[in-house]
Amino acid sequence: MSTTRSLDIQPLVLDDVSAIEEIEQRSMPAPWSRMMFVSEIVKTTSICLGAFVEDRLVAYVIVSRYVDAWHVMNLVVAPEHRRQGIATRLLASLFEQAADDERRGFTLEVRVSNDAAIELYESLGFQGQGIRRGYYTDNREDALIMWRDPREP
């Protein structure tokens, strides 16, 4: 299923934080705080992108740059906009923005029970690299650590 309305990918700004919080609260069992989003958006070493439909935020990705990797910290699509390719578009935009950085790969953690997300990440070149036991604070669920090499197609 694809969206018929146009999807715009743009850098997130502080004015987007309320919309981010609203999506986060509806989507995540252990939502980030407002200050966590603010601190990432203002950080010069982060890439924070939003997906907008008709000027309304419907999804976002928050990525921090570390010495050897881009760490995908948070990727959320509003429930009513899932399974439309929006997360794929956000990650493709991220990969384009980081294309000059040949040293750093991409890493993320995902709940071991989140089959849909794991399938998406695998389709984009991520591979499972290990488990973080009890990673999630809401229920102590394990996280699958995934990695994507910098030069993955």
Structural commentary:
- The chain has 153 residues and is α+β, with helices and mostly antiparallel strands.
- The protein contains four helices and seven strands; from the N terminus they run βααβββαβαββ.
- Strands 1-2-3-4-5-7-6 form a seven-stranded mixed sheet, sandwiched between helices.
- The mean pLDDT is 91.
What is the CATH topology assignment?
A: Aminopeptidase
CATH class wording: Alpha Beta
Structural class, by secondary structure, is: alpha+beta
Order of helices and strands: EHHEEEHEHEE
Q: Give the count of helical stretches.
A: 4
Using the 3D structure, state the CATH architecture.
Answer: 3-Layer(aba) Sandwich
Taken from the alpha-carbon principal axes, the silhouette is globular
Number of domains: 1
> Which bin fits the share of residues in helices?
25-40%
Write down the overall mean pLDDT.
91
SS strand fraction: 25-35%
Strand order of the largest sheet: 1-2-3-4-5-7-6
What is the CA-atom radius of gyration, in angstroms?
A: 15 Å
End-to-end CA span:
24 Å
Instruction: Tell me the major beta sheet.
Output: 7 strands, mixed
Count of β-strands? 7
Low-confidence stretches: none
What features would you highlight for this structure?
alpha+beta; 7-stranded mixed β-sheet; 7 strands; Aminopeptidase; 153 residues
What can be said about this structure in brief?
This protein has four helices and seven strands.
Helix and strand arrangement:
Layout (H helix, E strand, L loop, with lengths): L6 E5 L5 H11 L6 H9 L3 E8 L2 E10 L3 E9 L8 H12 L7 E7 L3 H9 L3 E6 L10 E6 L5
Parallel strand pairs: 4-5
Antiparallel strand pairs: 1-2, 2-3, 3-4, 5-7, 6-7
